[in-house]
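Supplementary material to the annual report.
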Amino acid sequence: MGVIAAVTQSDSRRLLSAPAVLHNLLWLYNGLAVLLVAGFFFVTQAKIIDSMSAYSFLTMLPLMPWPAGQGLLAAALSYLALFLLGHLYHRAEVPELRYLALTGEIIACIVLLRCLGLAYDGVVLLVVADLMHRYDGRNRLLLLTCAMLGLYFLADYNLLLFQGSVAPFEAYASYYAGPVRGVLLAARGGLISLNLVLFALYLVLLIQDTHEEKERVRLLNEQLAAANRQLRAYALEAESLAETRERNRLAREIHDTLGHTLTGLAAGLDACLVLVEAAPEAARAQMQKLAQVARHGLTDVRRSVSALRPETLEKLPLREAVTSMAREFQETSGMRVQLAVLGWPEHLRDDQEETVYRIVQEALTNANRHGQASQATVTIGTEPGRMFLIIADNGRGCEKAEPGFGLRHMRERLELLHGRLRCWSEGGFTLEAIIPLGEEQMAGGKQNDKGNDS
Amino acid sequence: MGKKEKGLGCLLFGLLCLAPACWAWHVTHGEVTLRIGLFVGSNWDVPSGEAYAVIDAAIAKFEAEHQGVKVEYASGIKREDYGEWLAEQLLAGREPDVFVVQDEDFDAYAAMGALQDLTEFVEDDSQLDWQGYYPALADYGRYEGHIYGLPVECAPTLMFVNKTLLDREGIPMPQEDWTWDEFYDICARVTRDTDGDGALDQFGVYGYDWQLAALANGARLFREDGKASYFADPRMEAALRFLLSLRRLQKGTEVTGRDFDLGRVAFRPFTFAEYRTYKPYPWRIKKLSDSEWDCVRLPRGPQGRNVSPVGTLLLAMSGRTDHASLAWEFLREVSTDPEIQALVLTKSQGLPVRREVVQGAARAEAMEGEGETGIDMAAVSDIMEEAVSQPKFRDHGAAILMADNEIRRILQGTEAVGGTLHRLQKEINAYLQR
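Predicted assembly:
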């Protein structure tokens, strides 16, 4: 996130950066200069015609100048074309289009130079600046050197083949009287010099900006490396956390399954001890049941170890699994278990089902083991937005429900589902668990299954 | 590439396509007006009566042949204002489609691209018989090998002879191939005091200047491109020495135009136009003297031939014209149409540029006796075959003026011939190459 934000910021920065501003300023300045020079030609040409010195003026020229209006129009249009092509060159993403735009820009520049009779060559710098602004390639330095050399050749046009094919500025200036001519030549020189200054400033800023950009990228890279390190630490931490959680889960599973089975077995064996003398047949039957419970428990333990769901739950829907578990518990422990279903939510998730199953299992174990209860009632129902479980027994209860292993596990399981657990002693021990449900899980739970006791 | 770029690209492309289409529409639709630029009066420094007669006839004929085409010209521009007028039109981009170009501007305008290169028109036009021009005229419109102008009329310089005076002195008319020696002999014989007042009152020649003498002796004074001169040429020196010898015959008396008008001068070089102006309407010569006049070729120097200089009026096409083929047809008509060229002979003072027209006039003359021109046209046509054009680069006039100044001093005897010519050549070269 931080990296993306930085990049976006850099884009907006680029548009408002000092070189970009100066680049726009260069365009504006050159536009004004072109207008000024072309305007000068326009006005002078008109004045020459008015003052009837056209003949002597023409004798100074190596070629026919364009009519004043046409010259001005051509200069303005070619500058406009230059500007538009420059814009296109800047924005275009397709390389071919960009090269095309650049070629067009150079042609427009040459036409413009011709329109201005080479009196103002600042637009060449403009094209070079444009080239520099966009081009980031490896040969930037070479390109700049070549562009500058080309510029040098163009600048002193007296040396060039262009000479003889343009109406020199001096011919126009010579129309005016001495002092004015001096001012004109100086003004033209100033116009060119100021453009040079702006261009140089632009180059300096561009180089500076490139440097800053590099620095910024370096900084960003450092931040990225730090973030990566942090992420790795997070990953390690998460891993150990998962390990702890898994260990807790295993402990819980062992407690839930093995504890439950062993409690049942212990209670059943006690009963056998009593029965073995008085009614050996009943004891035998009881012991058969106990063996079944033990086998059941063993399977449960195996499943827990392989982190699978309780076997009953795996085989049967939750409702039957709970019923079967209650019946089995009653048979093994002798504690009477009553199941009251006031409502049953639809489509419970696996984790929710497992939690419901385990809470019932644990609560019954607790009632038998700690409360010495002879009877327990399991009530399951739904309310808008949640389901509840109430397991109440008639055992001893306890004044202060110490958060033993069982209660703590129940609470942990519920917290994972954003549910909560309450328990209190009042003529026995009552435990209430609330599990929040989604909208779609609420329907079809209103039938009353009271008296489904076994 | 975003939508914006696409839009921008489309806009540029559209503009590129639209511009030529608009131009084509502009060119092909509407009535075409062909504009002509010319000055009023003669190109040959003679008064002219019917200033626009030839051009009006040409326009009428052209418009009749080309429906929907209108030809117009700005009238009343004097010859001395024409250079400035044309320059203003060129500078403002309003120059006519077809216009007269004066000699001294021709090379410069051709080089500047103000004139249309006509070479291809000439080569591709089957109706144009290039050989129909007199040789000197056909090449006069050339600049660096390309044709930029067609001749419309010309004026050769001929030697006019006062036959009455020669008859009185018992001297026969000079032959066509006469030489300086014969010329000098005649001048020496006629130069004398007729009324016995002690002062010379009859002379050999008036107006025979150093340029004619140089040409007659085969001296070429300027290089083709007008960047060098050859005044130190021995042929030029010989020409000046000949002029000096002629002057010495006059024993210090200056011959004036009035002497000529009074019939007291045997020879005078005249352009064809000058002769045409004075001869058929002899409001000066015939009034003042009853002399009979005839023309012969100019005498030749020891190293030259009997050639005449010829001046040519050139018509050119604008390099920026929208109606090039129409303009070409008009140019061709004025320059070559026999009817129009025949009008040059009757309505203006110049000579037609087409051989067939001049020879036709000569035939008519032979049938009807002395024709309208009062001049032997067959002889003129022969002279035209060997006529020589003067250089027409821009500085020519100024260089001639500089030379004229120096040479006058030589002829007046205040300067030596050889050294002065060398100095003059240096000065003029420096001027031409500045």
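The radius of gyration of chain B is 26 Å.
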